[in-house]
Structure formats: structure tokens, C-alpha cells
Design a protein that fits this description.
292 residues, globular, alpha/beta, Rossmann fold
């Protein structure tokens, strides 16, 4: 049976990017309900006003466009000045692109990487000196089930999330000696405004109708039908961070768990099938097949 995490003696501080809607707003409200301090950031701070009304003494609203030079450093500095530390940095800001690789212009690929990967990188780098000084804290990168696997039409989005996963894996090893945890969260479909407000659809090419048509239809229709509860996602994240051994990756939602498991089983099956071919690539030593 899953138990509710126990409240801490000292109020934690959660720093959340993209807090004006969706997961970010849900995480902020959950943290406030738990009695924590919240640094809620967004490109438009006015959209965060409702959070400040909940507990003004425990909320700091900061403008943060994760793609704008210097804004991450300023927001982190403001957070430290107000609350003294950061216990959980949650890199949540991002959006999605739906389109086949050929349908997606290079500029759109680059913009996707700028927000979903380089934006998270900028905020992480800005926070690391403080986290190292504390010798404690956590970095939570909200990736996706699309950070472990991909599907037709998600090339740009998955590329950005795969990159974030790779950085997370390296960070976990680099920061463990400082007592800093790293958690990559891989949600499936959750009932946020992501499908309605944070997806860009690329112009369709007839050549990809058969492979992309179903994806487009599904993404257009999924808003409001997702089975995942964002508040429960926040609870699961806190539970994982409080564990004696926090996992590197946390899949959220039955759809994510099932799809990633199937993807992993396919990977292992292919590895076994082609292992002999892959191993037969070593440099031949003396006396090898060339007779020398």
C-alpha cells in the first residue's frame, strides 16, 4: 500500500519552471498543500497570480523564459535570496511538436531543442553551484515516455527528451558525491492542457498520411480524455525523492509503463538476435583469418 509522504520539519523549497499551467501548476499547488515554499516561474508571471493568493508568504513568482540568456541565473538568485535554498529543482517548461521528420523544418527542430533541452540545461547549470554548496537537493527533469521511445510524428519532441534523459543520466553520476539526486520523470498521457495549448502541428504532407494520420487524429482528440491525474504525479515524484534509493527514471501512468516495458523487451530481443553479428567486429589478432 502506498503511503502519503510525511511532512518535513523544515519547509522544503520547490523551484518549478513552466508553472503557469499543466504539470507545473499541479506541482506548485501540491507543494503548497504540503506546506512547502514554491518558486513558481513562467514567461508570463501574471498567469501565476492565483498561486500567490494561496499562501503569499510561501510563494515567489518569477519571470523565466528558459531560452532567454541570463533569466535562469536571475530567477535562481531571487529564489536563494527569498528562501535560502532549493530542495527540488523541477525542469518542467516545454512544449511538443507533432510532425514527420520531413514535415518539420530545421528551425522547428532547433526551437524544440532550445526550450525542452537547452532551457532545462540553462536552469540546471544556474542552480548547480547552490545545490553543491548545500550538498543536498534534487533535480527533477520532466521528460516523457517519449524520452525512452518514439513514434511516428514525434521525432522532434523525442529528440529533445532523449537529450534530456542523456544529460540526466550523466548528472546523476556527477552529482551523487554531493548528495544531490537526479530524477527523470517519464509521464504518459495526463489530464493537463498540454494537448490543447502546448502542441504545434506541422503542415501535413500526403506522403505521410498512412504513418502520420493516426497520430495527428489521436493528438487532436486526446485533450480532456487522458487518464493521468497531475496531482497524483506530484505525489509520486515526492515519494520517489524521499526514498532511500531514488530511481534515475520514474515512469508515470499505465500507458507509459506498458509502452516502455514493451520497448525494452523489443530492445533486448533484438540485442539477443544480433549479438553474434555485433560481437564479430573485433580487430583480428595475429593468426586470424588473414593468415598473418
Amino acid at each position: 500500500m502506498t503511503t502519503q509522504p510525511q511532512a518535513q520539519t523544515r519547509a522544503q523549497t520547490w523551484f518549478i519552471t513552466g508553472a503557469s499551467s499543466g504539470f507545473g501548476m499541479a506541482f506548485a499547488r501540491y507543494a503548497l498543500d504540503r506546506g512547502y515554499n514554491v518558486v513558481a516561474t513562467a514567461r508570463t508571471p501574471a498567469k501565476l497570480a492565483a498561486l500567490a493568493e494561496v499562501a503569499p508568504e510561501r510563494v515567489l513568482l518569477s519571470r523565466l523564459d528558459v531560452t532567454a540568456a541570463g533569466e535562469a541565473e536571475a530567477a535562481i538568485a531571487a529564489a536563494i535570496a527569498r528562501f535560502g535554498r532549493i530542495d527540488a529543482l523541477i525542469n518542467n517548461a516545454g512544449y511538443g511538436i507533432i510532425g514527420a521528420v520531413e514535415e518539420t523544418p530545421e528551425a522547428e527542430f532547433r526551437a524544440q531543442m532550445e526550450t525542452n533541452f537547452f532551457g532545462a540545461l540553462a536552469v540546471t547549470r544556474a542552480a548547480l553551484p547552490q545545490l553543491r554548496r548545500q550538498r543536498a537537493g534534487a533535480i527533477v527533469n520532466i521528460t516523457s515516455m517519449g524520452g525512452q521511445m518514439s513514434f511516428a510524428g514525434a521525432g522532434a519532441y523525442s529528440a529533445s527528451k532523449f537529450a534530456l534523459e542523456g544529460m540526466s543520466e550523466a548528472l546523476a553520476l556527477e552529482l551523487a558525491p554531493f548528495g544531490i539526486k537526479v530524477l527523470a520523470v517519464e509521464p504518459g498521457a495526463f489530464r493537463t492542457g498540454f494537448a490543447a495549448d502546448a502542441l504545434k502541428f506541422m503542415p501535413a504532407m500526403e506522403a505521410y498520411h498512412d504513418t502520420m494520420g493516426g497520430t495527428r487524429d489521436f493528438m487532436h482528440a486526446m485533450h480532456g480524455t487522458q487518464l493521468g491525474d497531475p496531482a497524483k504525479a506530484a505525489r509520486a515524484i515526492e515519494h520517489a525523492l524521499a526514498a532511500a534509493k531514488t530511481p534515475l527514471r520514474l515512469q508515470l501512468g499505465a500507458d507509459a509503463i506498458d509502452a516502455i516495458r514493451q520497448h525494452g523487451e523489443t530492445l533486448l530481443a533484438d540485442l539477443a538476435t544480433w549479438e553474434a553479428v555485433g560481437r564479430d567486429t573485433q580487430v583480428e589478432e595475429c593468426g586470424g583469418r588473414d593468415g598473418r
